[in-house]
Specification:
Nucleotidyltransferase, domain 5, 10 helices, five-stranded mixed sheet, about 350 residues, six-stranded mixed sheet, binds zinc ion, binds 5'-O-[(R)-(carboxyoxy)(hydroxy)phosphoryl]adenosine, about 40% helix
């Protein structure tokens, strides 16, 4: 059994967590997430402000995670830190801090890929969300459809050609005058919307798509964003139309996520579907996914909002997996703005 301190600073959350366990049998002993509200003022994350905020909060956030777990630094076996992908200055705060802490305690440091963290997040709450499964990761920066044979063994089936799913929510919210981040405000508005008024085309889905087509598992959201922009500009009463447009947007976006995930689960014979990333806490997405994949008897696992959005518990969990495999980073561990998820196998 190992005790892992997880650290996450890739974007606008400073987070630390203590997790202990072996394999899939783990206990989350603490999780502290400090969200940087300052970015709401600018309608998006300002990288330099994010880095500075991480710098001032990292020490108290880690102290709090340790005291919540009832341990001090000497109780940690390894430090797992997000080292990619993300905002480079923000990542560097977590990476430099983690390397220094690990060096001073003479314990290993492990670099974790943020998206692998999201893949593990759902298993922290649902014992059944373990491989083999079809994985859909939908965050502010990524949209990844994966077939997961085993932890650390990922077949990348599809990703976005342009905007990520969360990015599409955020940009659409912005052009509709809603606050940042836009996922939750759109979801709430869409609940009151009439689904029949704005039927936007479901992107990248045609009835005659065939397995092997280059777009069979791919996503694209920039066209949908433009269609929403045109609808907003064309409206003579935006207050009347807003909720209906939000509903049309969300239905089209969810339609593509559900169809591609269904195709993957069906093709690989998976009976488990694991959702991850901030967009995975959209309840309309989860409901639509359950309805469609129920046809093939698949169970859908979705994380709660606290673990769906950025947090260090998922980093500690992915870090434990890498730690148990004997992986250790050197003190030359670096941060990368973009990096492929580790463990990719040929499609
Ligand atoms: O995973 P995450 O916290 O950060 C990244 O790694 O990017 O995801 C943040 C994204 C944002 O784009 C946000 O708008 C979206 O998740 N999001 C949602 C919802 N809650 C957060 N999107 C749709 N519906 C929601 N309820
Ligand atoms: Zn994330």
């Amino acid at each position: 059994m190992a005790v892992i301190l997880g650290i996450e600073t890739s974007c606008d959350e400073t987070s630390a967590a203590v997790l202990e366990g072996t394999g899939d049998d783990v206990t989350l002993r603490s999780l502290v997430i400090l969200s940087q509200d300052i970015h709401k003022v600018f309608g998006g994350v300002v990288p330099e402000i994010a880095s500075r905020a991480h710098l001032t909060s990292i020490v108290p956030v880690v102290s709090r995670a340790l005291s919540d777990a009832g341990i001090d630094q000497s109780g940690i076996d390894a430090v797992a830190v997000t080292h990619a992908p993300g905002l480079i200055g923000a990542l560097l705060v977590g990476v430099c801090y983690s390397k220094s802490l690990a060096f001073s305690l003479d314990i290993p440091v492990i670099g974790v890929h943020h998206m692998e963290g999201h893949l593990f997040a759902t298993a922290l709450e649902n014992a059944g969300a373990v491989p083999p499964f079809t994985g859909l990761l939908v965050s502010g920066g990524h949209t990844l459809l994966l077939d997961v044979e085993a932890w650390g063994n990922y077949r990348l089936l599809g990703s976005t050609r342009d905007d990520a799913a969360g990015e599409a929510f955020d940009k659409t919210a912005k052009l509709m005058g809603l606050p940042y981040p836009g996922g939750r405000p759109i979801e709430q508005l869409a609940r009151q919307g009439d689904p029949s008024r704005f039927r936007f085309t479901v992107p990248m889905v045609r009835r005659n798509d065939l397995p092997g087509d280059p777009d069979y598992y791919a996503f694209s959201y920039s066209g949908l964003k433009t269609a929403v922009l045109n609808a907003v500009r064309g409206s003579d009463d935006i207050d009347r139309d807003k909720a209906d447009i939000a509903r049309g947007f969300q239905d089209a976006l969810i339609g593509s996520l559900v169809e591609k995930t269904f195709r993957a689960a069906d093709a690989f014979g998976r009976d488990r579907i694991v959702l991850g990333g901030g967009v995975a806490c959209n309840s309309a997405l989860v409901a639509a996914m359950r309805e469609r994949t129920g046809e093939i008897g698949a169970t859908v696992f979705a994380p709660s909002p606290r673990l769906a959005t950025d947090n260090a518990a998922m980093i500690a969990r992915a870090g434990l997996f890498r730690f148990e495999r004997g992986e250790r980073a050197g003190l030359d561990l670096n941060a990368f703005a973009s990096l492929p998820i580790p463990g990719l196998v040929a499609a």
